[in-house]
Specification:
The chain has a two-stranded antiparallel ribbon. The longest helix is centred in the C-terminal third of the chain and has 34 residues. It is mainly α. The two termini are 35 Å apart. It is built from 14 helices and four strands. Helix 3 packs parallel to helix 13, helix 5 runs antiparallel to helix 6 and helix 5 packs antiparallel against helix 12. The chain has one domain. The relative contact order is 0.15. It is globular, with a radius of gyration of 21 Å.
């Protein structure tokens, strides 16, 4: 064990943050699992707790293994994995898993181990690495829209188009993160505006086509997520019922909470161990516990910015931002849903909610960040003598 700790490299604060989040997660997960046992009538609380422990243990193995790989290798790996994830997304979408008449094909079954794997989460991470590679390789070159459309935006469009029918929230979050990353990477702003326009137009056409010809896209989840938005605005639906219960849970927690395991609303929230676990935290640990979780994720964000600015290469900087920022963004969305600021999205709370794929991909992304951090500590940071021509250069000068 001592030898393992000696081999742990990278930013120690990030190691501490993810350890605290993971250890803390056992309390709300164990408490919320009673909903699955006594309401849904499946499994045991100890069983769910052990499963969560095993998923986290494997997740930390992924963090450790990934952070030992020199981050420059991920550049070429993204090119190799891009067609792989496209194939996986096609296979996932073609399964035709239907719930309430809508396509719910988000997972593929892993043979022999009996675990489902959500391919869109892997695709999102690989896509961010690939974009970081593209921006780094073209940093000192004039970017032409036609060329970048084929080598950058075509892969982005294909992957997002394959995720969209079954998972709008992941598509929207990934697209937002892509736009943010290309902006920070110095991609011409006028081209970003064009891409935003194309994205909005494509989504509108997709929705209108599905509405006008429902039989042509009868397995899509368009009606599901569009109804969620409409019902959120109107205040009527089962989703809003869940959101109301979540707000009641947070409000009843007051300052110090009811105590671990004493949540009442977990019995009324179907997704209390995943989508609405933050509400359970607010009820059992109060304002103090809820705000502490927020500060942990903000602390992670702060360390991501520090590591990004200290990276010796532009690829390292973009890589940290590309795979790290979505973790914090997803956490903020999950918490915003719990307090009623956003409609239900189905996004888990990273490293706290139950779910294997979310934990593993979060750990994979954190491992990449730690790899960049470890490499930066081994080398002397080079001074950038170029003019400040994009937001990343300004960020480097401001912090460093």
């Amino acid at each position: 064990m001592t030898k393992i700790f000696e081999n742990i490299k990278g930013d120690k604060t990030i190691w501490a943050i993810i350890a605290v989040l993971a250890i803390f997660s056992f309390l709300p997960v164990y408490s919320a699992s009673t909903n699955l046992v006594y309401v849904a009538g499946t499994g045991t609380t100890i069983g769910y707790l052990l499963k969560h422990a095993m998923l986290l243990l494997l997740g930390f193995v992924i963090v450790y293994a990934t952070h030992k790989i020199p981050y420059r290798y991920f550049s070429g790996l993204s090119v190799l994995l891009l067609p792989v994830v496209v194939v996986l997304l096609v296979v996932t979408l073609m399964q035709g898993t239907v719930i309430d008449g809508a396509n719910a094909s988000r997972w593929i079954h892993i043979p022999f181990v009996g675990i489902g794997f959500q391919t869109s989460t892997l695709a999102a991470v690989v896509l961010m690495i690939y974009i970081s590679r593209y921006l780094a390789r073209n940093k000192d070159q004039e970017i032409k829209f036609k060329e970048s459309f084929l080598t950058l935006w075509l892969p982005v469009g294909v992957i997002l188009a394959l995720i969209l029918p079954a998972n709008f929230s992941t598509t929207a979050i990934t697209f937002a993160m892509v736009v943010l990353l290309v902006f920070l990477g110095g991609y011409p702003f006028k081209y970003i505006v064009i891409i935003l326009g194309v994205g909005v137009l494509a989504l509108s056409l997709f929705v209108l086509t599905a509405r006008a010809f429902p039989d042509s896209m009868k397995n899509s989840r368009i009606s599901t997520w569009s109804n969620r938005i409409e019902n959120y605005i109107s205040g009527e639906s089962e989703d809003n019922y869940q959101a109301e219960k979540a707000k009641i849970a947070i409000a009843s927690g007051e300052i110090y909470g009811k105590g671990p395991g004493k949540s009442v609303q977990k019995n009324f929230l179907p997704q209390s161990s995943s989508d609405f676990i933050y509400a359970i935290i607010g009820e059992e640990f109060g304002f103090v516990g809820a705000i502490s979780i927020i500060f942990l994720y903000l602390g992670l964000l702060f360390r991501l910015v520090i590591i990004a600015t200290k990276s010796e290469t532009i690829f390292g900087t973009l890589l940290v931002l590309g795979v790290g920022l979505p973790i914090v963004f997803q956490a903020l969305i999950n918490m915003a849903v719990a307090v009623g600021l956003l409609p239900v999205t189905g996004q888990p709370l990273p490293l706290i909610s139950t779910g294997g794929t979310s934990i593993w991909m979060t750990c994979f992304a954190i491992g990449i960040v730690l790899s960049v951090s470890a490499n930066s500590k081994k080398s002397t940071v080079k001074q950038d003598k170029e003019e400040l021509d994009n937001p990343l250069d300004i960020l480097h000068e401001a912090v460093g």
